[in-house]
Amino acid sequence: MSVIDQLTRELSRFPGIGPKTAVRLVYHLMKRPKEEAHRLSQAVRDVADRIRPCLVCGNFSEAERCEVCSDPGRDRSTICVVEEAYEVGAIERTGQYRGQYHVLGGHLSPLDGIGPENLNLDTLLDRVTEGDTEVSEIIVATNASVEGEATAVYLENVVRPLGPRVTRLARGIPVGSDLEYVDGTTIAEALSGRREM
Amino acid sequence: MSVIDQLTRELSRFPGIGPKTAVRLVYHLMKRPKEEAHRLSQAVRDVADRIRPCLVCGNFSEAERCEVCSDPGRDRSTICVVEEAYEVGAIERTGQYRGQYHVLGGHLSPLDGIGPENLNLDTLLDRVTEGDTEVSEIIVATNASVEGEATAVYLENVVRPLGPRVTRLARGIPVGSDLEYVDGTTIAEALSGRREM
């Protein structure tokens, strides 16, 4: 197999990159200076060799504990539970959250054979029961999909008996949307969750 | 800058990959086995180090001459001129063409400051005037865009005086399309290019 075909095959493994896109990427790379490809090659290798899951929360990290878990300024009594590590970044960028995170690494999906034992759940329960600081609130930030909701309900059932409040992100109208284009289920959720002005 | 940010930045350089897609790709990579990332890293490096333009036609190649140029079974009297090297593959896959190729490396675009001197044109004229085999036909396969058409007209003007026939790919209704959804210009071209059944 030629080196072009080899790179095309490796790139096609990524989600959202089909064979045609992969070919385009390869040809783009060949038109660029060699140094750029070397930098990319090195960056891929560095990520593979130096990134690992944080021992505490499962977030990706260059050290044993991720930046959030090792920051003494973060509130340790609140843990926000997300499905995937890249969702931590989405919440961090708001600058509105000062607590901890916990990355499940997916959601419950019985049809795909993914049960509680396949998620990063035991360590979450350990954090709640055995941590140095008492955990007073678990914010469930799983996705607003069927599987995300099922995972949220499961979490509530296992965490609430241990003591902490269990909350979830508010459902409602996304900021900046026209009501006309918002789906009915979301409007219904926004109605039932309405707040005093 | 963290290794994650570094890889995200390198991936964002690709056309069609914005910062958000880049982040997704990086996280996908981190969830896969380390060996997969190592293979990708190596494939990127191999392409950078081992692929170069074919000395004859400008196509990407692992040797001095590309597979087409070094194949003694290919007809040397016909040269198909394309804008980019990946278009060679599109024509090769039809299995209907047995001649040579020439890769311009772009199209004329005065607004972007790309003139004839920025394209791989001199070597094409050399092939026509100085090759061992007489070149009897140049097939212009530049894109059906404004720039591609301008490049085609320019090519015709410089090549025809040297002797060869200059042809271009037929314009017409794409196979499998509903006439209803084909644009007017294409239908007009298909009409003027109509053939006996």
Keywords:
11% strand, two-stranded antiparallel ribbon, Helicase, Ruva Protein, domain 3, 7 helices, four-stranded parallel beta sheet, 2 domains, globular, alpha/beta, 197 residues, homodimer, Dna Topoisomerase Vi A Subunit, Chain: A, domain 2
Overall tally of structural domains of chain A: 2
Q: Which range does the strand content of chain A fall in?
A: 5-15%
CATH architecture of the largest domain in chain A: 3-Layer(aba) Sandwich
Order of helices and strands of chain A: HHHEEEHEHEHEH
Largest interface (C-beta under 8 Å): A-B, 45 and 45 residues
Could you tell me the number of beta strands of chain A?
6
Structural class of chain A comes to alpha/beta
Distance between the termini of chain A: 65 Å
* Strand order of the biggest β-sheet of chain A: 4-3-5-6
What is the 3D shape of chain A? globular
Instruction: Catalogue the unreliable spans of chain A.
Output: none
The CATH topology of the largest domain in chain A turns out to be: Dna Topoisomerase Vi A Subunit, Chain: A, domain 2
List the quaternary state of the chains.
Answer: homodimer
Radius of gyration of chain A: 21 Å
Largest beta-sheet details of chain A? 4 strands, parallel
Number of helical segments with 4 or more residues of chain A: 7
CATH class bucket of the largest domain in chain A: Alpha Beta
